[in-house]
Fold this protein.
Amino acid sequence: MRRDDYLKHLAAAMGASSVVIGCYHFAEGVASVPGATDANATVDSRERFYSAIFAGYGLAWLQAARRLPVRDTEVRALAGVMLVGGVGRLISVVRNGRPHWFQNVLTGLEFAFPAAFFALTTGRTEKGPGS
């Protein structure tokens, strides 16, 4: 499989998973967050709001994956958003301590996936409309 194909499939998988995760968190609110047993209505409201934004983030990934060719600038921007989210989690650890173990797994993924996307788009030559 060519690097372009990996990029397209990984972007599509990122989009689909983000939409599913966003919809799940929207439907379940704080009940969808491991370790969030003491959250109140304000936190539940925020969880549902941000989950809709996350589902929209997934739609942006799906749109990027459908373009021919996949545009590196879009992929890097979307990966950068995820990377910033991972940095936010690290700031939270420094300021508030360690969260539920699953959040630590997510933090690792929020650094690993952007690194993979940056690697797949480095040195690529975009051709076609919008390049």
The mean pLDDT is 93. DSSP finds four helices and no strands in the chain. Residues 79 and 114 are 5 Å apart (CA to CA). Helices lie at 3-28, 41-66, 72-96, 101-121.
